[in-house]
Design a protein that fits this description.
single chain, 18 helices, TIM Barrel, alpha/beta, elongated, Double Stranded RNA Binding Domain
Length: about 525
């Protein structure tokens, strides 16, 4: 038996976030992922509010989701309608799910200023809406909206609202910090009183406006709450909802509360990134547990420590959540960083080796000029090979010319590059047009080299970033260019720095090609 049940509301509450929009196909794929992760409840949306959510509940019926339950979400009945005539309640029943979640008002301010009805009328709405639904579905969850704000305003009335839900037959009562502004101490005080008055199983639903959704939820679980509601990556309105990617490992690994299986926990990073991909959002690299930087080490002292014992600077084994340990290389690096990174590349180095000191000196010198190797590990690996005297000179540049011409105001510029290179004594000349000068130069170089190195046809330039490094020099400032390239199997990053953006781009492009050829030579 699980200690805590996980209720995911990404497909409803998460979709209310700015910049988040999932298609019907996205929502169905997400449902499968959540079921694989072992989520107990998946809230599919608000049937009747839009055609996509209505279609979701029709399509999801064909899925075999093991023990995961699909829930619909809706409001208690309108003050002017009986439950049997309320269109919202009818839409929930039409969705034909085993679980229905009803949200109702528990803050007297909302009853007075939003519903504009008497407190007694609101209690009747809660009780008869739940009773009506409980007669027709297996499980009814009552989300007590703004409960903690309501408790702060009028404790007696907020508790009366929960009692009405109990009278209606709710299977769960979920206490909501809807504005996300409460402190863990507020949660504990209110929950202690609720537990004296209510025997129905309790849950909690926290928003993150005070950056306390995880802390508030953990405080509630410590006091015995057994259902938590949240979203993957904390997607949600305003500042987001409780982040399940932080909460689940906290519960499982820190508090010993079983909520998913260990093998499912190892999928957490994969699921997190899957959601970012479908949402078309760049993953938050600094996100706890699942972010790229969650177990990344940069300072030399830290790296020296983890080489001896990873527990010195890691609070858990990264593999438990599907992540991995990373060591970054920068001007803060020590010899341990170099040894660690070389080992990743299959190169055996010792801290006392002369090459290690030379690599460290070279890194510090280059980063003082503006180079950065944290996102350009291919350039760093080539630097190691160069220090060891193993880097091959694949070609020699004889010269290149880039022309960026705008012939009249109404037409876009035309970019053309010509280049001459020498490969093993053979001269090759090529020209190419491109979408901008860097693309033209990249195309011309590859056109010149593919005669000698056919595998370069597989290489694609996936991303290109330019950052101005020095302030106060205007258009004459130094720039750093980061390029991400890839072939059919791998992706790699390279870097270049110069006052001239074409030269900086050239450096990064050449490293990209050299890395591809170096990689091929190891096969």
């Amino acid at each position: 038996m699980k200690d805590v049940l996980i209720y995911d509301t990404t497909l409803r509450d998460g979709c209310q976030a700015e910049d988040i929009s999932f298609t019907l196909e996205d929502k169905l794929r997400i449902t499968e992922k959540l079921a694989e992760l072992g989520i107990d409840y998946i809230e599919g949306g608000f049937p009747g509010s839009n055609p996509r959510d209505t279609d979701f509940f029709k399509e999801v019926k064909r899925f075999k989701l093991r023990k995961t339950k699909i829930a619909t979400f809706g409001m208690t009945r309108k003050p002017s309608a009986r439950p049997s005539h309320d269109l919202n309640l009818k839409a929930l029943l039409d969705a034909d799910t085993p679980v229905v979640t009803l949200v109702g008002k528990t803050w007297d301010l909302h009853v007075r200023d939003d519903l504009r009805i008497s407190k007694k009328a609101n209690l009747e709405i809660i009780a008869d809406s739940i009773a009506f639904m409980k007669e027709r579905v297996d499980e009814v969850i009552f989300d007590a909206e703004h409960f903690f704000d309501g408790y702060g305003s009028s404790p007696e009335y907020a508790l009366e609202c929960l009692k009405a839900a109990v009278e209606g037959g709710a299977d769960w009562i979920v206490l909501c910090d809807t504005n996300g502004g409460r402190l863990p101490s507020d949660i504990r005080v209110a929950l202690a009183e609720v537990q004296k008055k209510v025997s129905t199983p309790l849950g909690i639903h926290c928003h993150n406006d005070g950056e306390l959704a995880v802390a508030n939820t953990m405080a509630a679980v410590e006091m015995g709450v057994r259902q938590v509601q949240g979203t993957i990556n904390g997607f949600g309105e305003r500042c987001g909802n409780l982040n399940l990617c932080s909460l689940i490992p906290n519960l499982q690994l820190k508090m010993g509360k079983r909520c998913i299986e260990p093998e499912q926990l190892k999928k957490l990073r994969e699921v997190s990134h899957f959601f970012y991909e479908l949402a078309n959002i760049i993953p938050n690299k600094h996100q706890p547990y699942v972010g790229d930087s969650a177990f990344a080490h940069k300072g030399g002292m830290h790296v020296a420590g983890i080489l001896k014992n990873r527990e010195t600077y890691e609070h858990i084994d990264p593999e438990l959540v599907g992540n991995r340990q990373r060591v970054l290389v920068s001007d803060l690096a020590g010899r341990s960083n170099i040894v660690y990174k070389a080992k990743e590349y299959g190169i055996g180095l010792k801290s006392e080796d002369h090459a290690v000191q030379e690599i460290l000196r070279r890194i510090k010198d280059l980063e003082s000029q503006g180079y950065e190797f944290e996102a350009a590990e291919a350039s760093f690996e080539l630097l190691i090979q160069e220090a060891l005297g193993r880097k091959k000179k694949n070609f020699r540049l004889v010269g290149f010319r880039v022309i960026d011409e705008k012939r009249n105001e109404s037409e876009p510029p035309i970019s053309e590059a010509t280049i001459m290179v020498e490969v093993d004594g053979t001269m090759e000349h090529a020209a190419a047009m491109g979408n901008g000068p860097v693309n033209a130069l990249d195309q011309a170089l590859r056109r010149a080299l593919t005669k000698f190195y056919p595998s370069l046809r597989e290489v694609e330039l996936l991303d290109y970033k330019v950052r101005v490094l020095s302030s106060g020099e205007g258009t004459g400032a130094s720039v750093r260019v980061l390029i991400e390239s890839g072939d059919k199997k791998d992706q790699w990053g390279t870097v270049g720095v110069s006052h001239n953006v074409i030269e900086a781009s050239w450096q990064a492009v050449v490293d990209s090609i050299d890395y591809k050829l170096y990689k091929d030579s190891k096969k």
